[in-house]
Specification:
Elements lengths: L5 E7 L3 H12 L5 E7 L2 H10 L4 E5 L1 E2 L2 E2 L1 H10 L5 E5 L5 H9 L3 E4 L5 H37 L3 E6 L4 E4 L1 H7 L3 H4 L4 H5 L5 H12 L4 E8 L5 E13 L3 E11 L1 H15 L9 H18 L3 E8 L2 H8 L1 H17 L6 E6 L2 E6 L7 H12 L4 E3 L2 E3 L3 E8 L6 H17 L5 E3 L2 H17 L8 E10 L5 E12 L3 E3 L1 H11 L2 H22 L5 E5 L9 H13 L6 E6 L8 H13 L2 E7 L6 H6 L4 E4 L1 H4 L6 H16 L3 E5 L4 H9 L4 E3 L9 H14 L1
Parallel strand pairs: 1-2, 1-3, 3-6, 6-7, 18-19, 21-23, 23-24, 24-25, 25-26, 26-27, 27-28
Antiparallel strand pairs: 4-5, 8-9, 8-12, 10-11, 11-12, 13-15, 13-18, 14-15, 16-17, 20-21, 20-28, 21-22
Helix pairs in contact: 1-5, 2-3, 12-13, 15-16, 18-19
Length: 697
């Protein structure tokens, strides 16, 4: 205790003489300044103690309002950290001793108030109280720290300088499945790194040997055999300056996080529908394959695969069936390659196969043939057996290119050539294909602006009734005369419009303009009864076709009974409820429904009988050969007979010769159209042609 220190003393004593003696004894000590506040009753002292701070209390155990230990207990309860010296004049010191045992720092018998002795007692009392408080605080801190470690959800271990486990908390026991007794004394690296690569084991051992901090993630096998991912942070405990006595390790189970990261990684690199590598991973693997081929002076191949007629399945049977087809196709493709090859879904119904190393030049061709053969078997979809083939483009690297994007472009161009050659085949890339692919892209870009630039137009071809020889109707046909590309044939741009979805806005425009044009034609050719317009399966999505027809009829004022919608057979594929509902709605408006190009698609007699059709059109490919190919003649006759048996009007299209016309008339065909009468004409020319025909009649 420093000299000159001022101490505040609470004196609880009812004897004035004793109070005076104590004050005088303390005043005699020159080194210390004592401020003594005396109270004769315990109640008064407690009130003062509650309001002010004191360094020590001198307490008489025999007070007017309190006797014995009660006085000490009340003071100690109110101020537990205040050192107390008990004053007793009793012959028996038993009560005073009991007070010391209860927490008082000392006791002094009255009559022993000699100054130096009293001051020593006060000094010692204050010092003992401070030490006691410090020890108690330290014990509390230690207890709290221990409880925090014991109850921590984070696994904690303390490891000695020999890397042996000294302490583990319950969380580490729960994590490993071992008891504290089983873990103590074990080598820490061996305990946690059994499932980890040797280099990780070496890193941790090196950190322990060099007193360094180590952090890392590793796999650990628990006592029950379960493997978990752990995140470990190990750091030295330094004492006496910089000396390391132990290490403390904190360990966290991060298996859930790792699983989530793995799922995210899988989702980022694999197609969710088929489970195959996606475009991102495929490009990475293709880049690696090309780099390996360049480095090791070997050849590889890229196959670009597109499912034939997939859009027919998707449009007709719905996306769920289309997805099922993609999954089955992915399985068949995967079965055609061996380990080390990559099959990836590139997008939509497009797949690629990467062959990083070709044993010989024909290896890629053999894989392509295996794929085509795998697609020969029907797919079981929508309670039906459907045949879906594929077209394959092949490019070799580094011969055809050494950049992934260029190779993809090459293979894509080769695939489109395979489709152009009839599909269900494969083609190797040639430089000319890139020129064609660029031309196709240019055509698609210009087609997107054809409506806006008013480059589309309609022509009309007459439908002639064979019984009367008179014009019974017209078919409206679409033409495109591009300002940049010139005249583009329908069989070139319409498939592109179908693939890109541009056919939907174009189809709406055709319906409106055709109905308006037909109204104009009827003013000159009143015997016209029907306007035939081709509609696409893409227009049936979401009920779009019904809205388009209603708008066209409203804008033109044409009656629904005059409109005949020509539908290709592929729309009927699968007998989808949505298709049936839409066709019945169109029929309910009063419009006629016609099956176009009959015999070239998927339709069966059951389809025709179950839908509200009124017209059946014989495809021009049969009509062209009815006088020269017996098989086509027989098919045409059978189609006419079948149509009549179902109460349908039968139209033969593509009639160009008198012999063809005579054949169809002989076998009962109802209506014909074709160049024999007239090629498709713009509205003004058709009016002139019709007028001349009427004048000639």
């Amino acid at each position: 205790m420093n000299a000159g220190l001022s101490l505040r003393v609470l004196l609880v004593e009812d004897n004035p003489t004793d109070v005076l003696l104590l004050r005088e004894s303390l005043a005699m000590v020159e080194a210390l300044n004592f401020e003594v506040l005396a109270r004769p009753r315990l109640a008064e002292a407690l009130k003062l103690l509650a309001e002010e701070r004191f360094d020590i209390a001198l307490l008489d155990l025999g007070l007017p309002d309190s006797q014995g230990l009660e006085a000490f207990h009340r003071v100690h309860s109110l101020a537990p950290s205040l050192p107390v010296i008990v004053l007793t004049g009793m012959a028996d010191d038993a009560v005073a001793m009991a007070a010391v045992q209860a927490g008082a720092q000392d006791y002094i018998g009255k009559g022993w108030f000699e100054g130096p002795m009293l001051v020593r007692a006060i000094r010692h009392a204050i010092e003992r109280q401070r030490v006691s408080e410090a020890l108690r605080a330290s014990e509390q801190r230690t207890s709290k720290l221990y409880q925090a470690v014991e109850q921590s959800r984070l696994a904690i271990a303390i490891v000695d300088g020999e890397a042996r486990v000294e302490y583990v908390n319950p969380s580490l026991c729960a994590l490993t499945g071992y008891s504290a007794e089983e873990l103590r004394g074990r080598c820490f690296p061996e305990l946690l790194l059994a499932e980890t690569a040797p280099e990780r084991h070496g890193e941790l051992v090196a950190a322990l040997a060099s007193d360094q901090v180590w952090e890392g993630e590793l796999q650990h096998r628990a006592k029950n055999g379960q493997v978990a991912w752990l995140s470990i942070s190990l750091g030295p405990i330094r004492v006496d300056g910089d000396e390391v006595s132990h290490f403390v390790a904190t360990i966290e189970d991060i298996s859930v996080r790792k699983s989530y990261e793995e799922r995210l990684l899988h989702q980022a690199n694999y197609d969710q529908l088929t489970g195959l590598p996606n475009r991102l991973l495929a490009l990475d693997r293709l880049g690696q394959a090309v780099a390996g081929a360049l480095r090791e002076n070997r050849a590889g191949a890229l196959l670009f695969i597109d499912l034939d007629s997939f859009k027919k399945v998707n449009d007709s049977l719905g996306h769920s069936v289309g997805d099922e087809l993609l999954v089955m196709a992915a399985q068949r493709l995967s079965a055609c390659v061996r380990a080390g090859h990559t099959v990836a879904r590139f997008g939509g119904d497009e797949f690629i196969v990467i062959l990083p190393e070709l044993e010989q030049a024909t290896a890629a061709e053999r894989v392509a043939k295996r794929i085509l053969q795998a697609f020969e078997s029907p797919f079981s979809l929508a309670n039906d057996q459907l045949f879906v083939s594929c077209s394959i483009g092949i490019t070799l690297f580094p011969v055809d290119g050494d950049q992934p994007q260029a190779l993809l472009q090459n293979a894509d161009a080769a695939m489109y050539r395979a489709k152009a050659l009839g599909r269900n085949t494969y083609q190797y890339f040639t430089p000319q294909m890139n020129v064609e692919a660029i031309d196709r892209l240019k055509l698609e870009n210009h087609l997107r602006y054809a409506l806006e630039r008013q480059e589309l137009s309609l022509v009309f071809q007459p439908l002639v009734n064979l019984a009367s020889g008179r014009i019974s109707g017209v078919e409206a046909l679409l033409r495109w005369n591009s300002a940049a590309l010139g005249f583009v044939p329908p069989d070139v741009f319409i498939p592109i419009a179908e693939e890109t979805g541009l056919i939907v806005p174009i189809g709406e425009w055709v319906l409106v303009e055709a109905c308006k044009g037909f109204q104009t034609l009827r003013g000159t050719v009143p015997e016209l009864k029907h306007l035939a317009v081709n509609v696409s399966a893409r227009q049936f999505r979401g009920g779009q076709i019904l809205k388009s027809v209603q708008k066209a009829l409203k804008d033109s004022g044409l009656g629904a009974e005059c409109l005949e919608l020509e539908i290709t057979e592929r729309l009927l594929l699968g007998n989808a409820p949505e298709t049936r509902e839409m066709l019945e709605s169109l029929s309910g408006l009063g419009a006629r429904l016609s099956i176009d190009d009959f015999g070239t698609g998927y339709s069966a007699l059951s389809y025709i009988r179950s839908y509200p059709f009124q017209v059946l059109k014989i495809d021009r490919s049969f009509v062209a050969d009815v006088t020269t190919v017996q098989e086509h003649a027989s098919l045409a006759v059978a189609i006419i007979a079948m149509g009549h048996s179902l109460g349908l009007e039968v139209i033969g299209e593509g009639v160009e010769t008198a012999e063809q016309l005579a054949f169809l008339r002989e076998h009962g065909c109802d209506v014909v159209q074709g160049y024999f009468y007239s090629k498709p004409l713009p509205l003004g020319q058709f009016l002139a042609w019709a007028g001349n025909r009427q004048a000639g009649a």
